Amino acid sequence: MSEIFWTRVRELFEAAADAPPAERETVLRAGSNGDDAVYREAAALLAADATGFLEHHDPLSIPPSLLRTSLAAESRIGGYRVTHLVGQGGMGEVYEAFRADADFTKRFALKVLRAGVIGNASVRRFEQERRILARLEHRNIAALLDGGLTDDHRPYLVMEFVEGVRITDWCRVQRLTTDQRLQLFRQVCGAVSYAHRNLIVHRDIKPGNILVAGDGTVKLLDFGIAKVLDDDAASDDAPTRAEGVALTPEYAAPEQLEGGVITTATDVYALGLLLFEILTGRRPFAAPGIAFADLKRSVLTRDPPPPSESLARNVAGSSDTGARSELRGDLDAIVLRALRVLPGERYGSVDELAEDLRRHDAGLPVSAMRGRRGYRLRKFIGRHRGGLIAAAIIAAVIIGGVIATVAQAHRADVQRGRAEATNGFLTEMLRSVDPSQSGRGVLMADVLDTAAARIGTGRTMVPDVEASLREAIGASYTALGKYDAAEPHLRRALALRQQQHETGMLLAGSLQGLASMFDSRGEYARADTLYRQALATLPATTDSAVNVESIDLLEQMARMQSHQGDFTEAANLLRQVIARQRAALGAGSPQVGRTLSDLGVTLLQLNQLVPAESAGRAAVKIFDDADVRSTPEGGHAIGRLASTFDMEGKRAEADSAYRQALTILSVVQGPTHPDVTWIRYNYAQFLSDGQRWPEAISEADSVLALRGAGVPETQPTIAATYMVRGQARIGIADHAGAERDMREGVALRKKYLPAGHWLIGTAESVLGEELVHNDRLAEGVALLTDGCRLVARVLGPDHPQTKRTRGRLLAVQPNAKSCS
Amino acid sequence: MDNAPTAPAEVTALLEAFRGGDSAAGERLLPIVYEALHHIAERHLRLERPDHTLQPTVLLHDAWLRLTAERGTPWNDREHFFALASRAMRRLLVDHARARQAAKRRGDLAVAMPDEIRAPDGADAVDLIALDSALDQLAVVDDRARQVVELRFFGGLDWPEIARAMSVSEPTVKRDWRFARSWLRRAIDGADDPTTG
Fold first, then answer.
1. Are A48 and B50 an interchain contact pair (Cβ–Cβ within 8 Å)?
2. With contacts defined as CB-CB under 8 Å, which chain A residues touch B117?
3. Taking the model in full, what pTM does it have?
4. Alpha carbons A739 and A730: distance in angstroms, whole number
5. ipTM beyond cut 0.95
C-alpha cells in the first residue's frame, strides 16, 4: 500500500517539477485526483526541491582524522573480529563484528559497555546477568550470544546483528494506519511480556531500541543491558541503593528520574510512551531541547495530555479529525493508564495492556474505561484531591465514566448523542471554572462545586444524561470524602432513574452509587440494603455486561463485610463472585484466580486452613496455566499461599512458596514495595520459628536495610522486623544485639502506633523477658507487667496474646498476681 | 591505528566475487574499503595543510588503486567499485560525526570542530547524522534513489560515472537525484504528519 502511495507521489512530483512554475499547482490538483494525502506530499516535495538541498555541499570539507574509537579495526575480542564502529550511545560503542575463526558472512553486533575497569565482584555479577539474559529466546528479541571482558577489562556483549529501521520511522515512512501501528506495537508487547515472565525488565525501552526489519518483524535490542550497567555503577556493599539510572531521560519513567525502584511497571510506562509516540508522532512531555530539570518536573507533576489532543495540536487545521477520533476514547484511556505516575496505578502487567488493545481491536469495552464504574473515578479523584490538574483531563475521566455507563446500557444508537450532550455540559462548566486560563490546572473540588451548582439550572437536560452526570458528581464527592455533598446528587440520580422506569443496569448502577457512599461513611446496614436491591434489579442472564456489573457489586459487598469483620459472610459473597466469574469469563480466567486468592485469605481469618489452602492452590494454578505467574497478582497469590502453609505447619511448602513469591515480587513490584516487605518479614518470622537463625537474621537485615531508604520507619513492618531479628539473635546467643533490636522495636511502636495499642504491649513483654535473661531484673519485670496489663486490657483476659504475655510474666515471677 | 590487513589474496578473491555480483562479498569488502579510505584520508591530512579540503573522488580513486591495482588485479569497471566505496565513505563520515557529537557531549574534545558540513556559499548546513537516518528511510521507499545519493554526495562521482556504476541512463539518475534530495529534505525537516491522511 505504501509502495503504491510513494509511486503516485513521485509521479505527481515529477510531473509538476517538469512543468513551468506557473502551471505546477494546476498539475498537482489535476494529477492528485482528489487524493489529499498524495497532493500534500507532492507539494511538500516540490517546496523541498526548491531549497537546493545537498546541491552545494562538500561532505569532506572536514578532515575525518578525528574519528576516535576505542577498538581499532580488525581487533580481536574473544572469538570475534571487529570491523568498524556502527554506533555510539549512552551505553557504549557498538561495532560490527564477525567470528574470527569461521563463517565470514554472519554479522554480529559487539557492544563494549561504557563502564570503566570493573572489580571482581562486578565481573561476577556481570557474568551472572549475562547468563540470565542469554536465556531469552524470542523471535522479537535480538539474541544475546556471547560476552566477556576486553583486554582492558571492559565488559562487552555480542548480539545478533539486526538490520532495520526504528519503529517510529517505519510507521511514518510506511504510512501505516492506526491498526497497523497497533499490530506492530503488540509484537513489542509480546516480547516484553515474554521477558517479564522470565523476570527480566528491559529498563530502556525506546524507539532506538526497537527496529523493524524489512519483512515487518519487530526486534527489541538491549534487553536488560541497562541493569548490567546499573549494577556495575552500584557498589557491592550497597545492595539497597535506589536503582534507577535513566539512560535516556526522554524515555524514562518517573521512578527512573527519581532514582526509585525499577520493576516491570517501569517497562509498562515506557510502553505507554512508545504507544503515545507511535500513535501521534510525538512524545507527551519532551519538547526538542527541553532541559532535564523541566522534563523531570513535567513527568513527575503533570498528567500527560491524551494522545488525541496531542494529535489535534499537531495537525491543527488539517483534515485529521478521522485519526483523532480513532484515538479518542479507548486508546486515550489505554495510553494514559500506562502512563500513571505511580507504578501501582498502571496496568499490572504488559499482558493486561496488550489485552486491552486486543479488546479495543475487537470492539469490546476496555478495562481502562470499563466497569468498577465509580472505582476508577474514585481513585483518580483521590489522587488529585488537592492538586491542580488540567481541566481537559477531568473532563476526559468524567466523560469516560458517563460514556461507559451509557455503553453498558447497550444503546449504541443513542450513545453518541448522550456523549455529546455530556461533553457540551462539561466543556461549558470547565470554562466557567477557569474563564481566563483554559488549559491551565484547576482544582478538582472547584470543578465539582461548579458542576454541582449548575446542573439543576439552565439548559434542560435529557433525564438520563442528568442522572449519569449526577452519579459521576456523587461518586467524585464520595471519593473526596464529602459525603453530605454527594448524597443529594446520588438520591436525585436514583429518583430520575426510577421516574424513567429504568430497570436493570442503569438502576443498579444508581443504587450502587448511593450504597458506596453509605459504605464509605460507615453506615453498613443501609449500604447493605441498597447493595442487595441493586443486585435484585439485575436479571439472571448470561449477558456478560450484566454479569460484570453483578460481580462488581458482590465484590464490593464482600469488601464491606471484611471491613466489618464478618468473614463468614465475606466468604459466602466471594464464593458467589467466583461462580459468576466462572460462568462469565471461564474457569481459567485470571480474575477467577484473583477472587480465589481473596477467598483463601478470608478463610485464613476464619482459621479454616484446609479450604484456605485449596482456594490458594487453585488460584496459583490458574495464574500458572494462564502464564501470568510473574505478575503482582501471581506473586501475591503465592505469598498468601505461603502464609497458609506456614499456619498449617507445612514447612517445606511454605519455605518454597515464600521464596518464589519474593523472587517474583522483587522484580515486578520492587523490593521496597510495602507488600513485598511484609512477605519478607513473614518469611523472617517463619525462619525464626524454625530456628533457622542466621537465615532469619539475613532476611530481616534485607528489610531493615530499607528503613528510610524506600520504606519509611512509620511502616509497622519495620518495628515488627526488629522484634523478629531480636528473637533470632537470642537464638545465636547475641544477647546484646537482641536487646538493641527489641528496644528499637518497642520505641518505634510507641512512636507510631496510637497510645495503648496491644502491639506495644506484646513488644514490651518480649523485651522484658530478654532483659530478665540479661540480669536486669527490675526493668524486665516492670516491662513484663506493663505489657501484660496492656494486652489484657485491650484484647481481654482470654485472648491467646494475653495468655502468651501472661505466661512470660509468670515464668519469671510465678507468684505474680494476674496482670489484668 | 592498528592495521592488521586482511590477506591480499582474500581481498582479491572478494573483489572478484563482488564484481561477479556476489553481494555478500560486498558486505565483507565494505569494512576493508572503509579502512582504506580512513587510512588514505589520514595520510593526506598529515601531508597537506590542515585546512585543506579533500576531494571525495581523489580518496575513492586512491582506495581503488590501493585495493586493486597495487595487488595486481586489473579491474576496469571501477565505477562498480565506487558504489561500494561511496557506501564506505558514508559510514566513515557519519561515524566521524557521531564520534564528534559524543565527544562534545562528554565535553572532552580538544579541538573545537564545526558541527555540520558547511556549504561553501554559506547555505544551510547538512546534519550528517540526520541525513544518514533519512537515507535509511529512503532505502525503504526507493533504494535506487538512495544509491544515487551515496554516489553523488558521498562519492563525488559525476553524472556519467553514476550512470555507468548503476547501469541506467543519465536522465534517470538525475530524476532519482531530484526526488531523493527533495524527499530527504522533507524527511529531515520531519514535517510529516504521522497518521494516514
1. no
2. 57-59, 61-62
3. 0.60
4. 9
5. no
SS3 readout for A53-68: CCCCCCCCCCCHHHCC
Question: To 10 degrees, the CA torsion angle through A802, A804, A805, A807?
Answer: 120
For A198, the 3-state DSSP assignment is coil
Residues B195, B197: Cα–Cα separation, whole Å:
6
Cβ under 8 Å to A: B residues 75-114: 89, 91-93, 95-96, 98-100, 102-103, 111, 113-114
Return the ∠ at Cα A305 (arms to A299 and A308), rounded to 5°.
Answer: 145
**Nearest-by-Cβ selection for A84 from B91, B156, B193:** B91
pLDDT-based confidence at B6, cuts 50/70/90?
low
Distance, in Å, from the CA atom of B111 to the CA atom of B125, rounded to the nearest integer, reads 20
Task: Indicate which residue of A35, A49, A179, A204 is catalytic.
Answer: A204
From chain B, pick out residues whose CB is under 8 angstroms from the CB of A37.
196-197
CA distance A768 to A772: 6
Residue A117, strand partner residues: none
- At residue A540, φ and ψ (nearest 5 deg) are -70, 120
* Cell numbers at B115, concatenated: 558541527
Which tens digit of pLDDT belongs to each residue from A573-631?
A: 999 999 988 888 888 888 899 999 999 989 988 889 999 999 999 999 999 998 888 88
Among B24, B140, B138, B136, CA closest to B84: B24
Q: Which of residues 118-177 of B touch A (CB under 8 A)?
A: 118-121, 123-124, 126, 128, 133, 136-137, 140-142, 149, 153-154, 156, 175
Nearest to A51 among B41, B121, B185 (CB): B185
Q: Is the pLDDT of residue B108 over 80?
A: no
H/E run at residue A471: helix A463-480
Instruction: Read off the pLDDT of each residue in A725-737 and give the average, rounded to a whole number.
Output: 95
Using an 8 Å Cβ cutoff, are A741 and A704 in contact? no
Of B48, B60, B64, which is closest to residue B153 (Cα–Cα)? B60
Q: Which contacts qualify for B188-191: CB closer than 8 Å, 24 or more apart?
A: B188/B127, B188/B130, B188/B131, B188/B134, B189/A48, B191/A44
For residue A13, give the amino acid letter: F
Higher pLDDT pick, A694 / B96? A694
CA separation for the pair A675, A713 (Å, rounded): 15
